[in-house]
Specification:
The protein has 202 residues and is α/β, with parallel strands linked by helices. The protein has helices at 20-30, 44-53, 58-62, 95-103, 109-119, 135-146, 165-179, 186-189, 196-200, and strands spanning 8-14, 36-42, 67-69, 87-93, 124-128, 150-151. Strands 3-2-1-4-5-6 form a six-stranded parallel β-sheet, with helices on both faces. The structure holds flavin mononucleotide. Residues 15-18, 43, 45-46, 48-49, 52, 94-97, 129-130 line the site of flavin mononucleotide.
Amino acid sequence: MTTVAAPGRLIVGVTGATGAPIAARMLEILRRVPYLETHLILSTWARSTIEVETPYSVREFSELADVTHRFGELGATVSSGSYPVAGMVVVPCSMKSLAAIRHGFADNLLTRAADVTLKERRPLVLVPRETPLSEIHLENMLALARMGVRIVPPMPAFYDRPGSVAEVVDHIVMRVLDQLGLPAADAELGERWPGLSDLRAR
Ligand SMILES: Cc1cc2nc3c(=O)[nH]c(=O)nc-3n(C[C@H](O)[C@H](O)[C@H](O)COP(=O)(O)O)c2cc1C
């Protein structure tokens, strides 16, 4: 599977799993990428997690994207494979939306856009968030991974000794953007693995 080539449009889906600050940070970073047009789709429950978990109102959050689509608007541009889009990321991805995407159950714009991304064989990155994971969750992820979907759970790394939640979030955003071929704001987002000997020497 290829990554997002510049210039292009990227669909950013946000669902009602906890982790809205990760999506917010990603949009803050992506809006600085001049060649990229972000198309945001918020699920109904994402609106609640955004309000609870981020300093943004839903309106302010939406303004981080170039275009915002309505969740129920199945007639939107991104609902059709004929509309040129480079790829899609769902961050965070609830187990409900994960299941819907796995089964092609496209009853809202977010799952429809993901379904289109799959059928057009465009890059699709999911950031699934749940713990612990049931057999259903794991099976759905395995099936999607076998379809070429990048499964990137928002797992923290500790080797760079993060000093804040913001640093943990930045590291996760960096790893998700890597999967899209968009290492846009690398230096800003954190450190890459320097090698154990380098790390020990510090
Ligand atoms: C505050 C909050 C946190 C939630 N966290 C998760 C989560 O981490 N993972 C998950 O799969 N569902 C989580 N849920 C449940 C989903 O919001 C729920 O399954 C919803 O139907 C998902 O729909 P959506 O995928 O269309 O947003 C959470 C709900 C709330 C209110």
